Every structure is written in C-alpha cells, then in structure tokens.
Input
Amino acid sequence: MAINVGYFLRESVLNFRRNWVMSLGAVITIYLSLLLVGVSMVLGVIVSEIVQSVEDKVSIQIFLKDGAATEDVEALQGWLLADEMVDTVNYVSKEDALERFKEEMAGSPEIVENIRENPLPASLDVTLTDPRQVEEMVGKIKANETFLKICDRPDEPEESLKYGQQIVDRLFAFTRIIRLIGVVFVAMLAVVSLIFINNTIRLAIYSRRKEIGIMRLVGASNWFIRAPFLLEGVMQSLLGAALAILTIVAVQAAVLPRLQEAVLFLPVDIAAGMMIQLALVLVVAGVVIGLLGAGFALRRYLKV
Amino acid sequence: MVRAMISMRGVEKYYVPDEPALAEVNVEIEAGEFVFLVGHSGSGKSTFIRLLQRELLPTRGQIIIAGQDIVRLKNWKVPYLRRNIGCVFQDFKLLPNKTSYENVAFALEVIGRSKHVIRTQVPEVLRLVGLEDKMESYPDELSGGEQQRVSIARAFVNRPPILLADEPTGNLDPATSLGIMSLFNRINKTGTTVLVATHDREMVDSMRKRVIALESGHIIRDQHRGVYGYGD
Output
C-alpha cells in the first residue's frame, strides 16, 4: 500500500504541473466559491448576533398625554408590573425626555437651540422578559382602559406606542435576502467549479491515454487507474479551501477590530470555535466538490 | 481429460447486423500450445484476439479461459483476467518517456507488485529477450525489433499462462521477424500458451505449428503442423 500512495501522489502532482493553467483555474474557482460560502457564514453569524443584541434592547414606549393624572399613571404602571411578561417599567418625565433628546441631538445644535417649549411627551418604558412577546404585550396594552384614558393621542392609541418589532422584522427580512443571494451565488460558483475540475481531469485523462491503455492491458485494477485522477480533483479543491480559510482568517484579523471600533454598540466578534467549524465546513465542501467533479469526468471520459 | 486453456464454443461477433466479424467459431487450445491465427485483413483475426482479452464481448457463444467463463465475468474482475494474459501488438505500445527498464517495470508497478519483485524480475525478463545492454535506452533509441522485444518483455514479465500477439512482426523486416518468432518459441517452451495472429506467410510456413485460418469470420482450416495456405 505504501508504494501505491506514493505512486498516486506522484502521478497527481505530475498531472497538476502538466496542466497547470487549467488546474489553477479550477483552484481559483473553488477558492472563490468556498470564500463566498465562508464569508456568508461569517456574515450570518455577525448579523444574528446583532439581531440578538437588538432584541435585547427591544422595549415598548407608552407615550402619555400632558397632564395625565398621577394615580392613573401609577395604576397603569402597577398593572404592567403585575403582568408576568413584563420585566421592568420606567417612568420618563417630559423633562427627562427632553434631556435625552438633547443628548442624542448634540451633533446638531441648531435643532436643539430652536426648541422653545418642550414638545416631548412623558412615557413609560417597558422591557419584557422575552422580546419575542412584544406583539402580544402591545395588544394587551391597547386593550387596557387606563392606557386609553391617559395615552398621548387617545384618538389614535396606536400612535402612542413605539416598539422595536418593526426593526427586528426588517433585520430578519434583510438577513433572509442576504442568505438567499448567498445561496444562489454559492450554487452557481459550485457548478462552475465542478465544470472546471471536470475539464482539468478530462485533460489529464487525455494526456495520459497511452499510459491508461497500457495499464488496462496489463491488468491494473479499475480503482488503481482512477485513483490519481480523483486525488488530483481533491487536491485542487483542498488547495482552494485552504486559500479560502486563510483569506477569511486574515480578513477577520485585519477588519473586525476596526469594525468593532466603528460600531461600538454592536457585537461583531466571532468565536474561535466558530472559525474551526467554518474551516471544517469549507474543507468538507471542497473535498465533495473535488470528488464529484473528478467523478463526473471519470464516468464520461475514462473507460475501464 | 486435459482441460483446454482456451475454449470458444459457438462464438459469433457482429459489429453490424447481418455481417458477422466472426461466426461459428469453435476452438479448443490446450495449455502449452503454440498457435498461429492467419487470414487476410478483415478476416476476423483481431476480433478473435480482442475477444480473448475481453476488450470485446461476443454477440453469442461461450469463451472459457482456464476454466473461467469470461463472457459472464464481472467488470471489476476483468483486470485480474488480464494479468494472466500477456499482449503484444504491431505498434509496440511503449511509453516514449520511459526507458526499457521503466516500461517493463510499469507493468508490475500498476498491478501493485513490490519494489523488490520489480528489481529482480525486470532485469531477468530483459535478459531473456536479449536486451540486458539496453535497459536504460528510451524507445526512440531502439530499433523496431528491439522495441518489440521490450514489449514482449513487458507482456511476459508477470509470467502469464497465455501470451497473445496481434501482428507482432507487421512493422519488422524478415530477419528481425525471425528473431521475434524464435523468442515466442522460447517463451512457449517455458509452458506458456502462445497465440500469434499474423499474415506473415514465410514465418508460419517455417515454424510448422498449429494454424487456424480465418476467412470472412469463419474458420476455414485448423491444422496441426500446418502452413499458411494455398495459392493466394
């Protein structure tokens, strides 16, 4: 067996060098498709982390009309706290709201300066134990009589509530589109890499047709004849996979810290375990593409 | 009863309907025999040889080699059949980028023989064919006769019980052909069954071996100590 492995490796490397342009083409297409797989995986992880952190921050703001009776506000607050979906309830006065607004708008002093009287309503900020229940809780609040009595705009109670469901939904929709585009691109590139490998193996078979004829003649077993070609396909795709992994690791090391600096409030970290998983996925995908591409070529062009 | 090494019963081969390349072929060849297969081009000699190699399957009939029905042989077992059948061709089929030694060694290498076996058997068989001085020569540095000797060495290095040759002297001059034929004779003396397809009249007549004559796919004569044929 030891002789065979050496023989197969020698033959595969020789083939690779003989058709190095085609082989390089195959390696590059595999590299690109695996890189895309890797990048979309990384993006997927980052986006889902962001979604998670946004969800954590999802709260319901209930705007109160000016001059709402304190006992009504307290009643509403008490009713909210009694609900088991609710985690905390915070009262924000008109002054607090204005203060917060001024802070947020510190970059645009002209807006702040133009504020004469306080246009902002007081509010109750409600956070939930489980952000996914936002919709349900909002429904409950809308049905509450005290809320209808003291809300900022009794004619349109809907407008007196602000909550992050839309943001979460939009983020999810966005990631779905990104994933879909990713899957389509990856599928197309996978097909292109299959075609490339198929072609390089076909050329390799063609350039060695004399040897193959003699091997058949003297009784080399079918797998002995096929093995170098399969190995060549796998080597090409492993090379592509290795390049893709290296690129992702390098880009991650160079870009992520800067990205994190730019968007302090969002987590853009990738766990080491995740990177190992990613590398495994790419290697396995590469081997599968290599075997498939070479296998197709052998079925079509190598009669044993 | 001696079991035949090669046995063909009712073998027919059609490439196109109604035009048999071979028909009604019934042949028994005993182990250790030397047989010439003669006939014009297109008489079915090559088809005969290729059926025995299982390069082709017969349209009808049974082919048994060393007790094994090769028509029913599973595809993956074919290589093991071929290890027992050495083949020599008119065009030598040598690899131009390999020396004589490497060409012969290649045949052992690809059936998984160990380096040790290769190192002992290759020089031995090259000595047998008289090329001990040309082991490191490339095919284009050898004469036609020498190239054919290398190809015979390759066919015989694994000591197969059967040696098939399809027009082995077709590209060689008469004197060289004689040398090749006496080499086949020596190989036959070691007990190997040898079947040579040829239209080299002089050769066949001088050797006085069994002759099977084909014409349009039919066996028209099967004669021990025979000659090439009459008239034509």
Summary: Residues 121 and 157 of chain B are 7 Å apart (CA to CA). The beta strands of chain B are 6-16, 19-29, 34-38, 60-65, 68-69, 85-89, 162-166, 193-198, 210-215, 218-223. The interface with chain A takes residues 53, 75-76, 79-84, 87, 93, 95, 106-107, 109-112, 114-115, 154-155, 158 of chain B (CB under 8 Å). Chain B has seven helices and ten strands.
